[in-house]
Amino acid sequence: MDLLWLPLTFFLSFILAQTWSVHTSWENRDANRHNEFDKPTSQPHIIFILVDDHGFRDVGYHGSEIKTPTLDRLAAQGVKLENYYVQPLCSPSRSQLMTGRYQIHTGLQHSIIRATQPNCLPLENVTLPQKLKQAGYSTHMVGKWHLGFYKRGCLPTQRGFDTFFGSLLGSGDYYSHYKCEGPGMCGYDLYEGEEAAWEQDRGLYSTVMFTRKAISILARHNPRKQPLFLYLAYQAVHSPLQVPTRYLERYKGIPNLHRRKYAAMVSCLDEAIHNLTLALKRYGYYDNTVIVYSSDNGGQPLAGGSNWPLRGSKATYWEGGIRAVGFVHSPLLLNKGTKCRSLVHVTDWFPTLVTLGEGTLDEDLNLDGYDVWEAISEGRPSPRQDILHNIDPIYIKAKNGSWKAGYGIWNTAIQAALRVGHWKLLTGVPGYSDWVPPQTFSNQRLTNRWHNENVRWDRGKSIWLFNITADPYERVDLSQRYPHIVKKMLLRLAQYNKTAVPVRYPAKDLRSNPQYNGGVWGPWYKDERQKQEEEERYNNWLTNHLGKRRWKKTKNRKLKRKVER
């Protein structure tokens, strides 16, 4: 009998061994899957902080009286961008950040996108969040859009962002989130996705509100599972000058009220970024994160901002309007604690961040930006050698501008600006051209001292040439001394202009009035498909309505005949 049981015992042992082996194999496989799931993504998280109207001087490390300990520390531990350029206004800088293309190639050469215009960042342009999304990123936007919203396809969630919380317009009240574009043209401007954020609105100061929203996004996302792109576009420090009272206490020593409020707004912003960086560390992002900080244009002295010692202000093509505060902070940088003096432009972020995020750059994107990561991280030479600041064929206010003044190559009445190597050329009317020293803000009111350095000798001119490396403050015009340089640069302008697309700057559309949209600024324009769908709904309603009316008339006639009989 024992002999008979032996094969059976052996057989059962074999089955159990195999079962255990299979079970162990599945456990190992599950463990491997779990490890793969927990394995940190190789793609860095990207936090892009865009600040509004932050003046070149208005950061501690540029010698300001405004205290910015967080920005100073992040910049000191990262790489300061000390030859970094943006555009002189909100929409132009944002459009170039989102597309990596100059304004002349998107049709947004003139001014900004206004709330009442049927205009937005052209839909045929691929955006930075769309490319990062293709690369596997979770994409989120918090803050100011200002790239148009006249139809649904223009909204951030239609342009590559998974989520959006913020404002669509260029400015508004920091607490109520209302904005007026003129008498009888007022509306609410705070959105969650594609709907007004009435329920999320607690009347919070926007800098605080946007920071809390950004932190909540970090808290909900798993940094080990998927790379994250967060575009945090603060409303601050754009006018109106509003700030919680406790921040004003720090600047009692600044007599000028505009400057005092502005300084307090910058301090609030600095504290907000401190809280954001703490959250990046708390939720496990920091060690694999790249933080980019940038202003969208120069400061506005009339609203408390300072670009000293640079010339000019926001909305001008002088250095004070386009040379920006900027830095990159990241544990992934190779050369930390350095300054990058290579030429960097806002269009460069598109190819730089897409490449950093292991995305693809197709040739048909026709980018004007360059991948400048090695220039920033390793201190290598920048691939960028020139910048087309802009060509605005609508802005032709230079009374003495002419083809003759441009040597028959260029009409100098046209507002244009170009940088090539050390040289910078301006034509037309570049904008407000004073230098505004810090002592300007020493009086309560802006007196005649405001114009102490008003440039009288510029009257009648329509062309300027500066060596920006030798003369970063644009005090010595060299256009008469080096006409051959002027001619070469005018030829370059003409070449760029041949590639320009027509300007998109439509007239005001009265249908944009929030009164027609429930008191909210939002899409009002309907494309052909939407129009067709609405017409079909109306026709169906009309057919049904008329059918019911005919039925009632027939019924009434029959009843009338019965009564008559």
TrEMBL record:
Pfam families: Sulfatase. Its cofactor is Ca(2+). Transmembrane segments: none annotated. InterPro entries: Alkaline_phosphatase_core_sf, ARSB, Sulfatase_CS, Sulfatase_N. Residues 1-17 form the signal peptide. Residues 44-356 form the Sulfatase N-terminal domain. GO terms for molecular function: metal ion binding; sulfuric ester hydrolase activity. It comes from the Eukaryota. Keywords: Calcium, Glycoprotein, Hydrolase, Metal-binding, Signal. Belongs to the sulfatase family. This is Arylsulfatase J. It comes from Channa argus.
